[in-house]
Amino acid sequence: MGAEEAPAGAEGSGQPSLSLEELGDRFQECIEAVARLEQERDELIRELSRLREPALQEIRRAHEEILAAHRLLAKAELERDNLRDEMGQVKRQLFKVTRECVACEYRLQRQRQELGQAAAARGELEGRAGQLSEELARLRESCGKEAEAARQRLEAPPDSRDVPFLQESRRLSAALASLLHALRDALRPLQAEAARLRRCNGSLEEQMALAKRKRDEEVRQYREQVEELEERLKELKNGVQLQQRKNQELQELRSSLHQELSIYKGCLETYGHLCKSEGKAEQEY
Fold first, then answer.
1. DSSP 40-67
2. Which is more confident, 164 or 184?
3. With the C-alpha atoms ordered 123, 124, 126, 130, is the resulting torsion angle positive or negative?
4. What confidence score (pLDDT) does residue 8 get?
5. Buried b (16+ CB within 10 A) or exposed e, 131-167
6. Fewer beta carbons under 10 A from the terminal one: N or C of the chain?
7. Reduced to 3 states, what is the DSSP secondary structure of residue 19?
């Protein structure tokens, strides 16, 4: 009686019973489903690794490019500082050369003034010496005439009336000789001074010519230096402008690399969230 009640109870429950074979088939299906899920999981992991590797490579490349950009920027800043120092040196050298040229012009102008003053003094002394020479010539001529007249009178027969005249003639001759001696004494320092001035003038002319040649050479060198310095300054300005453009490009490159790095980081975070979501889903299943 109990055996009959058992089937009746099974039928009353409304759930068909499974045989061992059916349970084995169902269990095998579950095992195969789990295997497929594990295979899909492994494929997803491999796909995630495959997708993550290029991103990591791009991040490493971006990091290397950022480091290279920083090195280039540091090098560019160092070159910029060196260019600024060199420009300062060029400007100081240009100022020094200009100051030396102005000093040379001032010295040359003073030498010209001294030469003009010496020439004027020499002209005055030469004029005074000429006047004294003319006066001496006239005195010599007058003295010669008087001496000739006195000699003729001395050669003539003596006359008592000529005694005072002879005395006056001797006195005049002595006075004339004294005057000639005084004129010679006065003319001697003038001639010496004129000779000294001529020598001084010759020396000044030589110094003037030497100074002119030196000034011309200094002016030529100064112009060459100015041209070289201006050309160098122009090159330095162009170099500074080029360096500024390079710095701007490096700043833009660094900003772009930072943006790319942010994008790659966002992608990695997204991949990480996906990986975690897949792991949680597998654990819940």
1. HHHHHHHHHHHHHHHHHHHHHHHHHHHH
2. 184
3. positive
4. 40
5. ebeeebeeeeeebeeeeeebeeeeeeeeeeeeeeeee
6. N
7. coil
pLDDT of residue 154: 62
Question: What's the DSSP call for residue 20?
Answer: H
Number of C-beta neighbours around residue 256 at 10 A: 13
Query: For residue 155, how many C-alpha atoms fall within 13 Å in the half-sphere facing its CB?
Result: 6
Q: State in words which class domain 31-284 has.
A: mainly alpha
Q: How far apart are CA 16 and CA 136, in angstroms?
A: 173
With H, G, I as helix, E, B as strand and everything else as coil, classify residue 241: helix
CA pair distance 210, 202, nearest whole angstrom:
12
pLDDT of the residue at 14: 46
Among 25-29, 73-77, 104-108, 149-153, the range scoring the smallest mean pLDDT is 149-153
pLDDT given at position 70: 79
Q: Can you say how many angstroms the Cα of residue 47 is from the centroid of all Cα atoms in its chain?
A: 60
Q: What is the pLDDT of residue 9?
A: 41
Q: Which two tokens stand for residue 210?
A: 């030497």
Which tokens hold the place of 242?
A: 């080029």
C-alpha distance across the termini of the chain, in Å = 45
Query: Token pair for residue 191?
Result: 């001639």
H, E, C per residue of 123-174 = HHHHHHHHHHHHHHHHHHHHHHHHHHHHHHHHHCCCCCCHHHHHHHHHHHHH
Q: Does residue 158 contact residue 195 with C-beta atoms inside 8 Å?
A: no
Report the predicted TM-score, pTM, of the whole model to 2 decimal places.
0.39
- In sequence order, the 6+-apart residues with CB closer than 8 A to the CB of 173 are 143, 146, 147, 150
| Better-predicted residue by pLDDT, 169 or 135 | 135
Check residues 60 and 165 and name the one with the higher pLDDT.
60
